[in-house]
Amino acid sequence: MKAIRRFTVRPVLPDPLRPLSDLARNLRWSWHAPTGDLFQSVDPECWAACGHDPVRLLGSVGPERLTELAGDRAFLGRLDAAADDLHTYMTGDRWYQTQSGTRPQSDQLPAAIAYFSPEFGITAALPQYSGGLGILAGDHLKAASDLGVPLIGVGLLYRHGYFRQTLSRDGWQQEHYPVLDPNELPLVQLKEPDSAPTLVSLALPGGRSLRARIWLAQVGRVPLLLLDSDVEENDLRERGVTDRLYGGGSEHRLLQEMLLGIGGVRAVRAYCRLTGHAAPEVFHTNEGHAGFLGLERIAELGSDGLEFAAALEAVRAGTVFTTHTPVPAGIDRFDRDLVARHFGPDAELPGIDVDRVIGLGRETYPGGEPGLFNMAVMGLRLAQRANGVSLLHGSVSREMFAGLWPGFDPEEVPITSVTNGVHAPTWVAPEVLRLGARQIGAERAEEALTVGGSDRWDSVADIPDEDIWELRRSLRTLLVMEVRERLRASWRQRGAGTAELGWIDRVLDPDVLTIGFARRVPSYKRLTLMLQDRDRLMNLLLHPERPVQIVVAGKAHPADEGGKRLIQELVRFADDPRVRHRIVFLPDYGMAMAQKLYPGCDIWLNNPLRPLEACGTSGMKAALNGCLNLSVLDGWWDEWFQPDFGWAVPTADGAGTDPDRRDAIEAAALYDLLEQRITPRFYERGESGLPDRWLEMVRHTLSLLGPKVLAGRMVREYVERLYAPAAGGHRAMDPDAARDLARWKTRVRAAWHGVTVDHVETSEAMGTAELGTTLGLRVRVGLGDLGPDDVEVQAVSGRVDEEDRIADAAPVPLKPVGAADLEGRWVYEGPLSLDRTGPFGYTVRILPSHRLLAQGTELGLVAVPSEDALGAAGLLMR
Hints:
The protein is built from 30 helices and 29 strands. The protein is α/β, with parallel strands linked by helices. This is glycogen phosphorylase.
């Protein structure tokens, strides 16, 4: 029989055990080992059966066991200690508070930051993520909590989360969408003082409404607000808006993103009203999905009497935009008519002209499609500060979006980089944590993993080789046991009987070099590159003296038939009885599996098509557990690779190399590395009987790479380089300043056609010069209807290539001399220092200048000399 109604019955805990409820509702248990250990001791078997979810655990433990624990003095002592530790963690000063106290009043850190993301990977018990973007967002929140950064997270609550993956008998991916009941998750509903649920509402065309309630997940010190449209007040279609992560057609996705951005701002306002939390001074958009938040904030200011142009400037000043995609195809783009239908007088934000909304997302640059609305373009136009997620990705992003800043070289496009990091307490195995705590003490170990700092990691050098090698073998053993368990479950789901599965007990070997490869399965990540030469791969797997074993996992998007075929191809190879004890594919890759997989591998393999990996953080998580990286020089590995940390797979990315040939070349290089350099080093033994050279690389990975890959380092960079300047910009942009800046931009854009560089000359005319020489520059410019206060005239110099393009350009401002002449021309002068040898060149340019601009490139306006203006300026020093 099927129930006609479902509800959740919560346990009544005995009074001495009441703190367990508070501990369960704060997701810090997902990365704080002592709290996790406490819940495990409640009932170890039930803890495992509940998927390490304290909320489910407390709802499943029988009253007899609870009564027993309520009288257990040892358990109650541990419970009190955990509750006191959480209270101290939640209320005490942390890194952020110490930084705030050292700054002058005019440069105070933001009182709060709102962080918007379409997905968050906090714990397997809250499955609201699909891959790297969500895991990164979860790690961002956790690191912010550990550092005391006053973040408010904002996302959506998907009733089906992302799909669960199984395999058919022939290896084809199957998707399943279990229904999630928020009442059974570590969430509480945000409510009004009269206990009524707090709702946000969006207006839809035709007089309809989209309403959503707000669920709160407490991520340490950070509140995470999740909007849920499955409420009785909605019609059936609107109830399904938050059904699945990245599901549905264009309108479905548009409504999700409107709810995330517009509804998310309204949820933040409600949360601050109800709790007294400080209002955010900075809004951070993690990818373009939440870009509509800027429109809602413009509408808020408009209701206070600020016109659109001024409100836009006020919003931009306090907004940070992070792009994660290295390819245009990865950006959400909507038909402009669809967007227009959902805004304006008959729908949402009626106070904003629809043409202004559409203008924010229009692809106005060469090659753009004017009929499409681009969410990343809107995100960039609504944010004064933007960044990519690795140095290489920042460069790729500047190239990709250069059309929004015409007249500037890509390297001057105002998109910086903050390289991603990972939350070490989440991803470092307990066994690794215990070894670190034994070496330097538990408190210092925790600080090393959260705040970072190389001095705290140097002590790795003092850990004996025997201890590191024993740790690595024990982690490999745990992985072998985990793989066998998961593989047996997978084969049962594929229809195999018990009698067919005896071979699984011999799968993998704790003493064999273990390679891990786990990630989403789009084509550019090249899941099957390892299968290019199957004979060579088989020889590696079955080598009599130096074998390797490979653990593979990953999900293809449900609509990606090509990705599913790649999975099937690899699964069929792994099913071969000759090699199935050496290579396995594990379905349903997620956080729970990843936390076992990273520590147990010796090598982490990553072979995307360069430069299509924006960052790729799985190798960072592996590295924190002493795993070495074997990767194409892409994402973070391009930035931090050293031979001490692993190996770089050479890339064949020449313009004339077709994709098949490129795959063949790079696969051959991968096999060569494994055969000639990696496996010999792993199996080679020194005088101590240990793989000395291998252990030296493990030690360097932990001590030198470890501090770099931390999410704590990443969040500190966001605070110092983006959040603090954005907060300063927000405070400076009061209504009068916003109006002044908007009027100034309008005036400058209208008058820019009259800005010219008319003549450039130097104090000396020659083809060579001595290093250290200083030349005098004299420039005559026309400013039209503008004045010297509106512009900056710059000399830009540096080394030049064979086509006279300036590399590593260094701008130096020139100063006006006297007043304008009778023709309205101005003279600017300044020194030009020849501070480097070799081919050297310079040019002169004029940029708009205003105290409230974050950078001179912001407007995309520049004036440079014409051929007639060069005079004696065509100077090259060699």
